[in-house]
Amino acid sequence: MSDAADSARAEQLRSGLVDALVTDGVITSREVETAFRTVPRHMFAPEASLEEAYAQDRLVTKRDEHGITISSVSAPQIQAMMLEQAELGPGMRVLEIGSGGYNAALMAELVGPGGVVTTIDIDPDVIDRARRFLKEAGYPHVNVVLADGEQGCAEHAPFDRIMVTAGAWDIPPAWVDQLTEGGSITVPLRMRGLTRSITFTRVGDHLESRSARVCGFVAMQGAGRHRERLLLLRGKEIGLRFDDGWPADPDLLNGAFEAGDARVWSGVTVGRREPFDTLQLWLATALDGFCLLSVDKDLDSGLVRPVNRIAAPAVVEGAGFAYLTVRGVDETSVEFGAHAFGPDAVRLAETMAEQVGVWDRVHRTGPGPRFAVYPAHIPVGRLPDGLVITKRHVHVTVSWPAAQPSAAGQRVPAPPTE
Ligand SMILES: C[S@@+](CC[C@H](N)C(=O)[O-])C[C@H]1O[C@@H](n2cnc3c(N)ncnc32)[C@H](O)[C@@H]1O
């Protein structure tokens, strides 16, 4: 294909992608739409075909020695979602942690000629590529810096916006210190194994969430790296993944399967295609010993039937555990239940099923959880009510404003307070 034909084809594919993101409600602002229509995504992954470059999928650009993705051009729908969350405006100074070039170019379009974009990455290969592609695509003014995101980028601070595009477990002090008062950080933050892209606004010494969306990202490397711990049961058939917290005596669980099991159905149903991400977070908030259960698809004996095979909410207590399961109700809906193993299986399953009921009655139609981030030196007693997850640098609090009853007695979401 000639260069002219290639470029016409790229424009056509780009236009189709943006139309789809607008139709799906992922792009909601004219500014983000214009940026996506302007920046040539294919120039940031020249090894991909044009069709791949404009698909709603990430473009893997680097893997580690085990084949695990460590760098990519993120999926366009995730980039659009996060840019909408971040609300970049003309003249802003912004920092992107985790580079590649394409998202930095979108940010450069959004802040315009009066703004400044700095993009940093821990990997020299990624930085070389980003620098080259940004120049070739017409964004030579973006600052491209090789650095560990843990320290932010003091050289170009302060920032009105920080956008983190690697999965973070913690919020290091540099990010807050390098933020202007009223500035915001958009970060895929992992809490109890569940990642949400959260936009936090700086309010004095702490951060308060403005919006949260489900997402997944390659893990942060460098000083901020934090690995989940995996407990394998029945050989390698069942895995329990702990983000924080680890059973006092994990060996006790080996006897759980012989001790008996129990299933308790909650009476709470959900559409087969309906998201239930707030239920996962609610169970993570309400149940001690929370973890995520997975089943190896090649070794699956059918003993456990989790709500999904990759990461089902679960809880470990002593010599037993319970996880979230479902059974079909009809063509379109399923009912949640809890399935437990161990000497106290009935009580464990009842407790989890009861919390599914609490979610359904109190939080399902509510405004969803609010998150806040406080420096770790603040005593837990001074933090807002709710779950406190203590990380290396900060406490993350997860609180659940309840839905407010309407005049007719139905629950309606409480109005946003920010
Ligand atoms: C999903 S990619 C970034 C995608 C990119 N923003 C884009 O334009 O689509 C995640 C990147 O984060 C980088 N990364 C991981 N840990 C980091 C750290 N501690 N500091 C800076 N970059 C990091 C990886 O090297 C990888 O290139």
TrEMBL record:
MF terms (GO), sorted A to Z: protein-L-isoaspartate (D-aspartate) O-methyltransferase activity
Keyword annotations of the record: Cytoplasm, Methyltransferase, S-adenosyl-L-methionine, Transferase
Keyword DNA damage recorded: no
Subcellular location per the Swiss-Prot or TrEMBL entry: Cytoplasm
GO cellular component, one term: cytoplasm
Any one biological process term the GO annotation gives: methylation
Known EC number: 2.1.1.77
InterPro entries: Methyltran_FxLD (IPR027573), PCMT (IPR000682), SAM-dependent_MTases_sf (IPR029063)
CDD domains xref list: AdoMet_MTases
KW Transferase (keyword) present: yes
Family: Belongs to the methyltransferase superfamily. L-isoaspartyl/D-aspartyl protein methyltransferase family.
NCBIfam families assigned to the protein according to its UniProt record, in alphabetical order: methyltran_FxLD
The protein, known as: Protein-L-isoaspartate O-methyltransferase
Organism: Thermomonospora cellulosilytica
Lineage of source species: Bacteria, Bacillati, Actinomycetota, Actinomycetes, Streptosporangiales
